[in-house]
Specification:
This protein is α+β, with helices and mostly antiparallel strands. It has three domains: 3-90, Uridine Diphospho-n-acetylenolpyruvylglucosamine Reductase, domain 2 (2-Layer Sandwich); 97-221, Uridine Diphospho-n-acetylenolpyruvylglucosamine Reductase, domain 3 (2-Layer Sandwich), CATH 3.30.465; 225-413, FAD-linked oxidases, C-terminal domain (Vanillyl-alcohol Oxidase, Chain A, domain 3, 3-Layer(aba) Sandwich), CATH 3.40.462. 33% of the residues lie in helices and 23% in strands. The protein contains 14 helices and 19 strands. It has helices at 3-14, 23-26, 50-63, 115-125, 142-147, 155-158, 239-249, 281-297, 307-314, 319-325, 345-358, 389-408, 418-426, 430-443, and strands spanning 19-20, 43-45, 67-70, 87-90, 97-101, 106-110, 129-130, 165-171, 177-181, 211-218, 220-221, 225-233, 254-260, 270-278, 301-302, 331-340, 364-370, 375-385, 412-414. The chain has an eight-stranded antiparallel sheet, sandwiched between helices. It has a five-stranded antiparallel sheet with strand order 5-6-10-8-9. A four-stranded mixed sheet has the order 1-2-4-3. Helix 1 runs antiparallel to helix 3 (50-63) and helix 7 packs antiparallel against helix 8.
Length: 456
């Protein structure tokens, strides 16, 4: 089929104005804010319903055209840039909040609902509930975030966001619509279990297994009070034990370690950001005093945080994330995110600093504790000047070296670029790879779903 007739078919499915192959429309879809080089796109299409998604996938299957699902496009690591051209399916028109179950505490959302719209909907209608959202810009989609194992302010208490999925509606690569989780059996989207859990096939698979059209996520009580305990430590080697002791109390809602060489007098310190929440002064006092006692035992001074700095640190999403993203004023930003074991925090920080300096950057690193210390999201930031190809290449090389370092110390790169995926797969157990390949071929016999990603 010619490109013109494919466009006509896409327009017949979604309506004129929601499919395009004009260069001026495709330009923005050919790049993301990260360090990947732009990659060409043939078509962009914006479906409104699951049936439209189904028809597009059937067309792509007949014509063997790649389909790349996209939410907010903010993952930064090129995951929504086609490797072999094709159709970018922008999900933003599927933006309905379908259900908020206040007793069972979950939300059923279409795939294009943004974190910003969910947060403001809850604020207006259910102020005693909160959703798991990242510190990403609020145009990120909830689906995009939970599908990539994102994390955020509730992650110390409840784990990473993929653990908060109750159910999915998926359009499989052959165009079949299916439901996964309790919603496959019942009208309630309240649980993944107790049937064989196939939801895992669709998380961290970067759109290679199918297109998610609906997602059910857990919601959580929103306590009335929230505060931050801020401390500074020079004992990097003591961080794993400190984190283990704090998580043991189960009193922190979010727990982060920052390490930055700006201002330069901070280079010998790690900052500790420990968020506590509660519903009464007594509860807050108990949590604060218990955590401060642990810090005191480790000779860590608690520092009161006031004024603008307090506003930045208490913001949600945290303003500091956006600030760190653009400190070089070049408009380009990417970070290596990774999951590492708790015990590897000191080594990761030490090696992350060496790599940052090697690539001419002021080190800026963050650890967010996931669950009760079950994992750590460790990141090293690489801001760069988008207009300078050498600076962009420098960032790519630094990102690759950091990903390799993470793998060497026993961690796993998170939402990584193509080259990071390759390094990760090279280390995978051969039987895992064989199973992965077979599942993928079974689901997607024509290889149309975001091909080039997770190549086995
Ligand atoms: C300043 C900044 C701060 C950030 N802070 C955080 C943070 O604190 N925590 C965090 O977790 N992340 C963070 N991020 C990373 C990222 O922005 C978020 O994780 C974001 O939620 C990703 O959502 P998205 O809608 O942009 O996903 P996208 O980038 O659009 O998609 C992500 C992946 O999922 C696939 N996908 C998207 N939608 C679908 C669908 N419907 N069906 C199938 N596959 C799909 C895409 O193909 C892609 O592979 C940050 C980013 C920035 C720029």
């Amino acid at each position: 089929m010619s490109k013109a007739s494919i466009l006509t078919d896409l327009e017949d499915i979604v309506g004129k104005g929601f499919a395009s192959n004009k260069p001026e429309d495709l330009y923005i879809y050919s790049q993301d804010p990260g360090a990947s080089e732009p990659r060409p796109v043939d078509f962009v299409v914006m479906p409104k319903t699951v049936e439209e998604v189904q028809e597009i996938v059937k067309l792509a299957n007949n014509e063997k055209i790649p389909v790349i699902p996209m939410g907010g496009g903010l993952t930064l690591s090129g995951l929504i840039l086609p490797v072999h051209k094709g159709i970018v399916m922008d999900m933003k028109r599927m933006d309905k909040i379908l259900e908020i179950n206040t007793l069972g505490r979950y939300a059923v959302l279409e795939a294009g609902v943004t974190t910003g719209s969910l947060v403001s909907y809850l604020k207006d209608n259910h102020p005693d509930l909160q959703a798991p959202v990242p510190d990403a810009p609020t145009s990120a989609t909830v689906a995009g975030n939970v599908l990539i194992h994102g994390s955020g302010s509730l992650s110390q208490k409840y784990g990473h966001h993929a653990h908060m999925i109750n159910g999915l509606e998926v359009v499989l690569p052959t165009g079949v619509i299916t439901k996964l989780g309790s919603c496959a059996i019942s009208k309630y989207w309240f649980s993944k279990a107790p049937i064989p859990d196939l939801i895992g096939l669709f998380t961290s698979s970067f759109g290679t297994m199918g297109i998610i059209t609906k997602v059910s996520i857990k919601l959580f009580p929103k306590p009335k009070e929230r505060d931050i305990i801020f401390g500074l430590t020079q004992d990097f080697d003591g961080l794993p034990d400190l984190m283990s002791k704090i998580t043991y109390t189960e009193f922190a809602e979010d727990l982060m370690i920052g390490h930055s060489h700006t201002p330069s007098n901070m280079k010998n310190f790690c900052s500790l950001m420990i968020y506590i929440t509660g519903n009464s002064k007594e509860e807050m006092d108990l949590k604060r005093s218990t955590i401060e006692k642990i810090l005191k035992e480790k000779n860590i001074q608690v520092t009161p945080i006031m004024g603008q700095t307090r506003t930045y640190l208490m913001d949600h999403p945290q303003y500091t994330a956006a600030f760190a993203a653009d400190w070089r004023k070049g408009g380009g930003f990417e970070y290596v995110g990774s999951f590492i074991p708790l015990e590897k925090i000191p080594e990761a920080i030490e090696k992350g600093v060496i790599i940052s300096k090697k690539y001419g950057l002021i080190p800026s690193l963050l650890c967010r504790i996931i669950g009760s210390g079950h994992a750590v999201m460790f990141s090293v930031t690489f801001p760069f000047n988008r207009a300078d190809p050498d600076d962009r290449k420098n960032a790519r090389e630094g990102l690759e070296e950091t990903n390799k370092m993470v793998l060497e110390i026993g961690g796993i790169p998170w939402k990584t670029e193509l080259v990071g995926q390759k390094h990760t797969m090279e280390r995978a157990d051969p039987h895992y790879k064989e199973l992965f390949k077979r599942v993928r071929n079974l689901l997607d016999p024509n290889g149309i779903m975001n091909p080039g990603n997770w190549e086995v």
